[in-house]
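User: For a benchmark we're assembling, each entry needs the component sequences followed by a predicted structure for the full assembly. Here are entry 17's components. Please fill in the structure.
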Amino acid sequence: MGTEPGKFKSALKVNEGITQPAIVSGESLANFKSKRKKKLSIDEYVEGILSQNRTILSQAITLIESSLHKHQETAQQIIEKCLPYTGKSVRIGITGVPGVGKSSFIETLGMNVVSNGHKLAVLAIDPSSERSGGSIMGDKTRMEQLSAQPNAFIRPSPSAGSLGGVARKTREVIYLCEAAGFDVIFIETVGVGQSEVVVHSMVDFFLLLMLAGAGDELQGIKRGIMEMADAIAITKADGANIEKANLAKTEFQNALHLFPKGGSGWLPKALTCSAHQNQGIVAVWETIEDYLKFTKWNNHFFSNRINQSKFWMHQTIKESLLDHFYKSHSIQYKLDHVENEVLAGKVSSFEGARMLLNDYFKKI
Amino acid sequence: MGTEPGKFKSALKVNEGITQPAIVSGESLANFKSKRKKKLSIDEYVEGILSQNRTILSQAITLIESSLHKHQETAQQIIEKCLPYTGKSVRIGITGVPGVGKSSFIETLGMNVVSNGHKLAVLAIDPSSERSGGSIMGDKTRMEQLSAQPNAFIRPSPSAGSLGGVARKTREVIYLCEAAGFDVIFIETVGVGQSEVVVHSMVDFFLLLMLAGAGDELQGIKRGIMEMADAIAITKADGANIEKANLAKTEFQNALHLFPKGGSGWLPKALTCSAHQNQGIVAVWETIEDYLKFTKWNNHFFSNRINQSKFWMHQTIKESLLDHFYKSHSIQYKLDHVENEVLAGKVSSFEGARMLLNDYFKKI
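Assistant: Structure for entry 17:
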């Protein structure tokens, strides 16, 4: 195994064989057409993206999302060439459980952003979409108004995969969108899992949407997510709901005061809004602008970006090392047995780990 | 490198050479004496621990804390033989920043626990002690009353090292204390870093001590720690401080309601107490007992223990793999350069990671 170039690469190769027979399947024509369309050189891709050609941007994103090794290599070269033109957007994470009114909120906020002369890209991280069948971006009729805007670009969630893989792809898509001139980027996620932590580590501002008066169970927000929020917006604050929303706002504002400040020095805000009545949406955007002003003034905005780049390099290294370990034959063969010994209290956690590690390092 | 048994082992060997010259240093006599005392067989250690011999327990803990490979191997064998006798204690994590009155609180609560017929061990995780010079267990005059109790065993923090290393040692010390009949174990930490997360993942109950009316800066508690707490105790609730403490209790209780429930289904409690006046300390202990009853009833207590064993095995694997990667020659040689390229925006985080990983897997 000493000459193998690492599982993180060879794992991709596995898929190469699979796609050939797909040419003769039902999808063959669409595949064939898109393949023909995609016969661009790296430079043509890069020029297309930099000249803000949306079709070429979409095609390049499809390359990023592809599981074909060849496509990924092309994508990588495009990304590296686009890198000097990235980083000039504001990256905003938006999270909230299904039912909180995320689509309506994003549409209304997005229309606002676009009408202020910005170019907006809306992306999503949703690694659970394939498993649960309920993709947050699956509803094609949503955000009708926004998707009709020439300055808005809405891209559905990449197909399901490991969170690490999806995160990596999303970050790469951000780069391409920035190179294509989008200066505001929303990254949307459902607030129920690890994906918020991932989104938090690739955005400048993290917005949590909450419903007023819903119990813990309904809110479904995972522990720790509230503490990552730079602002909490109570949605659906209209009609009979207004009073409840205001009460929730006060409660959350008090709770946010109790939290220690994050590295930004910013005191998180609680707000109410109604996408339906376009109430309070401007205030959310103003809060984001206040935050940007404040963190650019105290330099957190820039140091945070640098920390994120570093984080993602080391995160990728960690995931690849773990992948290589857990996918190696000797570990796959022994893991269950050792784990059971540990769970039965026959060997300690550390002794179990030592046994597996010895085996792994002997074999590679 | 293909035959090397993994850095996690060889890293320990590095120290073996260093300790030999120490024999002729000023510490030589003490070293020599303790070495002579320690000439016990594995079985003698195990028998000593099981027969609740505190001196032998202390000596075995010293072996765990030693950086000598030989000592660690002996310790490992002792631990594996003690394993069948472990797990019967209640493990309680107690955290709070310096100044919150942690020592007084632990002493008063501990006296209470001991007078109820329990055997109590007090351990500490404090990886920062060497760096900051201010070890939380450094003050030898503290807990005078408790340390005089025959049924209390207070063990200072192991010498500084990586958090992973300290955590591993602490977990091993817990095993030995349990085998020696201690049925209540406190694990103490300062609430300012990653160590709380580590403590949280090795205890049954996590208690956060807070001061009333102290600003965020003074509290110094890291984000996310409050959400891990099964109870928050406001300390120093006596004299002129009582009103403020009661107010803080209400505020925290409200905030805790907003948090989603953890896996235990337990709703965290906020309490006030005064170690000085021995007020509210019994209530803290009763809350812990309520929690234990509740989580043993709904099985969380047991499933949590199993999850922790699994967690620590995989955590150890992860740390060892990362250690092996970052300490390998080719990575140490190239890392700074690649990191700088990433930070300068010349290559993407993922491309940087790929370059290093290719190099690593080519070399091993």
